[in-house]
Amino acid sequence: MSDAKIIDGKAFAQNVRARVAKQVQDLKDYNNVTPGLAVVLVGEDPASQVYVRNKVKQTEECGMKSLEYRRDPDISEQELLTLVYGLNENPEVNGILVQLPLPDHISEDKVIAAIAPEKDVDGFHVINTGLLATGSEDAMVPCTPLGCLMMLKDFYGGDLTGKRAVVVGRSNIVGKPMGALLLNESCTVTTVHSRTQDIEEECRRADILVAAVGRPEMIKKEWIKPGAAVIDVGINRIEKEDGKTKLVGDVAFDEVKEVCGAITPVPGGVGPMTIACLLANTVTAACRQHKIEEPKVD
Ligand SMILES: NC(=O)C1=CN([C@@H]2O[C@H](COP(=O)(O)OP(=O)(O)OC[C@H]3O[C@@H](n4cnc5c(N)ncnc54)[C@H](OP(=O)(O)O)[C@@H]3O)[C@@H](O)[C@H]2O)C=CC1
Ligand SMILES: Nc1nc(=O)c2c([nH]1)NC[C@@H]1CN(c3ccc(C(=O)N[C@@H](CCC(=O)O)C(=O)O)cc3)C=[N+]21
């Protein structure tokens, strides 16, 4: 079998950002609106710092306003909630992202619930979760699953109807919304997790396999149906023999690419698309808040 298509998430994301930048220009020119994204980062986790820096940079490159709120890890839950309430009221802010995870003394559920659903560009609020689950177009869709779906639709020429999809992982931020999105696309969806009896067997049936587990290179060649599309959400930092660290996904890329039809690499796959979709969601949120139609660009 010929080698798999390596899906270039970085290039894909660049295209999405170029479209977002055009939309932002239109909004400025015709509606006098500049979308604004507020990112809240609590604590000093180095990986989170990198993501937040990338988000801020790319938000500005697309012509949007970026507001950054860094807080010490000992901030109280109440203080963080007060910050969120203020952002809900701030007309310059169309999107709010509170970087997860939060320190243990703060309830993530409470903070997510405090975000105004129309500004919830992560799509984590139960209102948006419910809208997605009921197939409503009004949902703010979580960025990572949305990015995965865009790449899958591109690979399949737009239609996923009837495909067998297996999602590995059932977190609220990736696995569950990914399953809901694929179901809305008329896939036959199976979600597997740490209590699944025979994961390997389930995975082998998949035309579409989405891995969101957080276990380095867990998914092996033998688990893959020949020709399947494999989307690797995992971001795992592992130590190499020389003591340096490197990023690997949840899929054993080098061996899996010999059997699958398409695969996303790590890095350069889902990660860049997540940020691009965040920017796209911010434009959507701004348009809805201003009650204007989203600019159509090619
Ligand atoms: N590229 C990107 O943009 C993003 C990447 N990520 C990455 O994706 C990965 C998953 O993230 P997230 O969903 O937040 O992770 P969570 O830790 O919240 O969820 C992991 C899921 O995987 C399941 N799981 C864990 N171990 C196994 C196992 N051995 N066999 C089967 N299932 C297992 C868990 O099952 P159970 O529920 O039974 O415990 C759980 O449902 C991480 O590597 C994360 O860094 C996350 C967000 C964005
Ligand atoms: N409220 C919230 N929303 C999130 O969307 C969110 C979050 N919290 N917490 C953490 C996870 C993780 N996440 C990533 C985003 C981009 C890359 C990314 O761009 N990765 C690059 C590599 C970056 C590197 O080198 O470290 C790549 O895969 O090519 C990765 C991971 C968003 N998350």
Automatic annotation (TrEMBL):
UniProt key word RNA-binding: no
InterPro entries associated with the record: Aminoacid_DH-like_N_sf, NAD(P)-bd_dom_sf, THF_DH/CycHdrlase, THF_DH/CycHdrlase_cat_dom, THF_DH/CycHdrlase_CS, THF_DH/CycHdrlase_NAD-bd_dom
Stretch forming the signal peptide: none
Reactions performed catalytically: (6R)-5,10-methylene-5,6,7,8-tetrahydrofolate + NADP(+) = (6R)-5,10-methenyltetrahydrofolate + NADPH; (6R)-5,10-methenyltetrahydrofolate + H2O = (6R)-10-formyltetrahydrofolate + H(+)
Annotated Gene Ontology cellular component terms: cytosol
One Gene Ontology molecular-function label: methenyltetrahydrofolate cyclohydrolase activity
Involved pathway(s): One-carbon metabolism; tetrahydrofolate interconversion
Entry's Gene Ontology BP terms: L-histidine biosynthetic process; methionine biosynthetic process; purine nucleotide biosynthetic process; tetrahydrofolate interconversion
EC number assigned by the record: 1.5.1.5, 3.5.4.9
Keyword Oxidoreductase: yes
Sequence ranges assigned to domain Tetrahydrofolate dehydrogenase/cyclohydrolase NAD(P)-binding in this UniProt record: 142-289
Assigned keywords, A-Z: Amino-acid biosynthesis, Histidine biosynthesis, Hydrolase, Methionine biosynthesis, Multifunctional enzyme, NADP, One-carbon metabolism, Oxidoreductase, Purine biosynthesis
Binding residues annotated for NADP(+), in chain numbering: G169, R170, S171, I235
Start and end residues of each Tetrahydrofolate dehydrogenase/cyclohydrolase catalytic domain: 7-122
Top-level taxon in the UniProt lineage: Bacteria
Stated role: Catalyzes the oxidation of 5,10-methylenetetrahydrofolate to 5,10-methenyltetrahydrofolate and then the hydrolysis of 5,10-methenyltetrahydrofolate to 10-formyltetrahydrofolate.
PANTHER family: C-1-TETRAHYDROFOLATE SYNTHASE, CYTOPLASMIC, C-1-TETRAHYDROFOLATE SYNTHASE, CYTOPLASMIC-RELATED
Subunit relationships: Homodimer.
Family according to the record: Belongs to the tetrahydrofolate dehydrogenase/cyclohydrolase family.
HAMAP family for this protein: THF_DHG_CYH
The protein's name: Bifunctional protein FolD
Organism of derivation: Candidatus Terasakiella magnetica
Upper classification of the organism: Bacteria, Pseudomonadati, Pseudomonadota, Alphaproteobacteria, Rhodospirillales
Gene: folD
